[in-house]
Amino acid sequence: MRKYYFALPALCLISLIAQGQQIKKTEVKRILSTLAADDMEGRATFQPGAEKAAVFLEKEFANVGLQPLKGDNDFRQSFSRYDTKPVRQDLIVNGQPVSSDRAFITGIEPSINWTQDTKLETATIGATDNFDVKVRELKRSETPTIVWVDSEHSEKFGQYVKALKQHGAEKQDSTATVAFVLRATADREIDNWSLEAKQQVTPFSLFNIAGMITGTGKPDEYVIFSGHYDHIGILKPVEQDSIANGADDDASGVTAVVLLAKYFKEHPPVRSILFVAFTGEEIGGFGSRYFSRQLDPEKIVAMFNIEMIGKESKFGKNSAFITGYERSNFGEILGKNLASSKFRFHPDPYPEQQLFYRSDNATLARLGVPAHTISTTQIDKDTLYHSVKDEISSMDFDNITSIIQAIATSATSIVNGKDTPSRIDKATVGGRL
């Protein structure tokens, strides 16, 4: 998860596994232990450990018998991120050359040559706007955009320009070019302007690991099970341990994805199911953002994002919570399917942590998909979170096994086309992601 155990009694288990084979604890331990092993080196994005984890997951998907996503030849959903660094900028406003410190550019075009006659979107960051929030929003523009920034933001603007000159813009995606220009106090009206700029662009390859089971009756409707396979890599040593293994965050969730794939392969669904291990969650949700652009969100019925299920929740045994519970009836459907068991899904008990916005469900939720994260983490007091102590020894394998089985059972009516969760109101989340 980004910065910004229950053992059911025998009678209870019967209700959870009535539809088929129980999730096996031995398999949970095998997969999770492999992903969180020291030789994965913390699975940091762009590092050899992440590649090793990806190869392992590809083999697991193949062994399950999944198919690549439509249009793909294998389980790697490849894309790129880009580092950019400004080389030259020439800015003219109202016929007068002005300092290059009054402009910065996001996007991956190596050069631009714009004038007031260039076909562009125009936006503003006003004196009372939150500069950081507006920059984050506008950087996602899908068309080339010129943004005029009020002089009230000159201090923040200067900090951005200084950082770009020193370090460049790290890990951008292929969104449209956006130029931010700081207006001078004297610029009441801007009659003409031009901006010519060049930047150095360096690509870096990434890949989600994704496979699918085609539905038997509604193949063009999709349910997603997901988790992220990246973590934060090598840290400053603590007691001679420098590897942030990421057992709970999120080897536990990815283990669930693999075993749910196996479960539903043995119980063919009516709707198609996509199983995805995302990359880059810890450094900006890059994998889920790319993934969301490859599908029609109107065809995605639900998303079960699974993150940090390795320990008992604050509600005790037989429980987990769902982020954004109140935003759709997704949780109600899951609860109905578990009514005869002791297992219960609860609303997120940590609203102040904004977990709904901090995992890979967020991008699709922004598009209206009932996309929620299932978790048990006691995030307010988890001392192992994002540390070298998030290791296999802290995992409760009985807990994880039972949660995965509960997810499989609770999802049945959705994957079999009997229930369709209500859509999330895009207007309530669009500005937050």
UniProtKB/TrEMBL annotation:
Keywords, sorted A to Z: Hydrolase, Signal
GO molecular function: metalloexopeptidase activity
Name by which UniProt lists this protein: M20/M25/M40 family metallo-hydrolase
Residues in Peptidase M28 domain copies: 208-408
PANTHER family: METALLOPEPTIDASE M28 FAMILY MEMBER, PEPTIDASE M28 DOMAIN-CONTAINING PROTEIN
Gene3D superfamilies in alphabetical order: Zn peptidases
Domain of life, source organism: Bacteria
GO biological process terms, semicolon-separated: proteolysis
Residues annotated as signal peptide: 1-20
